[in-house]
# Entry
Amino acid sequence: MNKERTTNIYKTRFKCKSINLSKFINTCTQNGITIFNLEKGERFSTFELSEQDSKKIQKLDLSNFCIEVERQGGTQFFKKFFLTHIGFILGLIVSMIALFCLQDRILQLHITGMSTIAKSDIEKEINTYGINYFSNINFDKAALEKYLIEKFDFSLVSIISKGNSLIVNVKESIRDIEDNYAPITADCNMIIKSIEVYAGTKVVDVGDIVFKGDILVQPYYKSNTDIVYVEPRAKIVADVCFSRSYKFLEKEILQVRSGKQTTLFKGISLGDIPILNLNNINPFKNFEIEDKTRVVANYFLPIVEKVIISFELVEFENVRDFEKEKENIISQLKELVYRQVFEGIQNIKEDIVFTDIAGGKIINFSITGEYVFKYM
Amino acid sequence: MENYLDEIINACKLPFSEVVTEFKVIQIGNKIIYIGNFKKILDYSNNRVALKTSKEVVEIVGNNLLISQINKNEIIIKGDIYSFGVAQ
# Structure
């Protein structure tokens, strides 16, 4: 007999092997017992009683009926459940307590940024200050930063907490190089005309071509055995040069947009996960691509829309007249060059050089002048 | 006596369904039937349930009959109910 049986854990299920079921039912009901889900089977019948009625039925004289408990319900059911799952329940309780107690405790310590000082030394000092594993993570971090700076002569200490980790980022001070003397370097490209060194050792001579950044005077005197560091002082007179050039072509092939465009790709992604992608074949032979990315929404993960558009390009030959454009080109070059020139340059001479090449010319505009560099 | 009782019920405007001594039947479709104010159960099997009321015998015939709940004078029967009859 297949019937729907709803398992009710609050009721105790009994099994009855009595022939005269009707008499049993009447006996129970006359004694105030309510029977639930009475099913008659081939060999036995099953029924359910509430916890109170389960105790009542045991007090009745039902010796003529063979009744036994099939499944306990009510408090007995829960008692059995807890006893059989005691390990799991205890483990759950212990882990919840541990989670609650350790939420504000330091479980990991990360120290980064050191190069000469050992990590263990810094850790030892932190422990001396009073911060250890399992200490409270909500302490005055600014005070510890100040303590570490004074102790180790750091230039920067940053302490942050992330979860149960304490992250200490340090930056060691840069050691002075013998009272911090720096060499004299070239400020721009130049040709040395004269050099007078009052302190230090010169590394260039008259007539040398030097480029921007090259060392001119070293900040030390070197003897056979000793190196004595000094602040370098010198006076250098040099010819400075600034130039710019432009390549002019009589015929040039230009590519401009024809006006036609097509969408090659349209996609929406959630963070790094692509959700929707639409691809198209590019129908153009010559094309230019434009990529547009737009953040549609940014809550837990950003929703990003990406569109790639292809624009058709058409080529056409542009014939240029040098004489018409010459003045314009020279004035632009002049403006660019004069932006580099600094104050104090004397005897400025401008020079324009035209060099013929296949199909056009190269125009070079340069300025030369004399400048006195005083490093005192 | 019964007429006297009916007159009292009408005079006091008591709810009829709660104070009668005859059996009550509520049937929902042919799946569930509730019978109240019966005296005892005479027969119960998967195909037939017979109940004794104050004057009559109520018989429910069907298939896969299951007593969902039964107490002193109320019974709820579930299953495929084919017929419900009353005999004197």
About this structure: Chain A touches chain B at residues 1, 3, 21-22, 25-26, 29-30, 32-40, 47 (CB under 8 Å). DSSP finds seven helices and 21 strands in chain A.
